[in-house]
Amino acid sequence: MTDDGYALVHEPPEVEVYLRLRREAGMNERSAPGAGRGLPNSLFAVQVTYQGETVGMGRVVGDDGCFYQVVDIAVKPAHQGQGLGKRIMGEIRDYILRTAPPNAFVSLMADGEAHRLYAQFGFRPTHSLGMGWYPNLISD
Fold first, then answer.
1. What is the pLDDT of residues 64-115, one digit of tens each?
2. Among residues 60, 48, 45, which one has the least CA distance to residue 100?
3. pTM of structure
4. Do the record's keywords include Signal (predicted)?
């Protein structure tokens, strides 16, 4: 634990905690079955706790060789502005620098002002909007 009462935990959150934190941080919802399947498959995960409660999180997913994606960076609104996003990203950066082979590609999707945080860790726009697919949300 640090002097400010926050502690880092290097494991994925429980499904209920994950879903709650995403919701409180204003992120898109995920299903409990999806989270239950996905969270254990994280390459790396970090939680920030305060007085026993998870108030921030971040994960890395991918193939553990060529491609890594930073996902689920979230901080509970009451704890934003305390540098927790930087702590989470610092842990993720350290993990990737320690484990990723040469020429691995690390990506993330940023919305709003989050790009300011990620730029501090070397992320740059790709000048492409890219594409995404939510297969269960498509209607004919």
1. 999 999 999 999 999 999 999 999 999 999 999 999 999 999 999 888 788 8
2. 60
3. 0.89
4. no
Tokens 């540098």, residue? Answer: 83
CA distance 44 to 111: 22
C-alpha distances in Å from residue 135, one per residue of 16, 39, 42, 46: 23, 20, 21, 28
Architecture of the CATH domain 6-137: 3-Layer(aba) Sandwich (3.40)
- For the chain, the 3-state helix, strand and coil shares in percent, each to the nearest 5, are 35, 25, 40
Q: Six-digit token pair at 54?
A: 């998870």
Tell me the residue type at 88.
I
| Token pair of 95 as six digits | 């993990």
- What three-state secondary structure class fits 25? coil
Task: Enumerate the β-bridge partners of residue 106.
Answer: 68
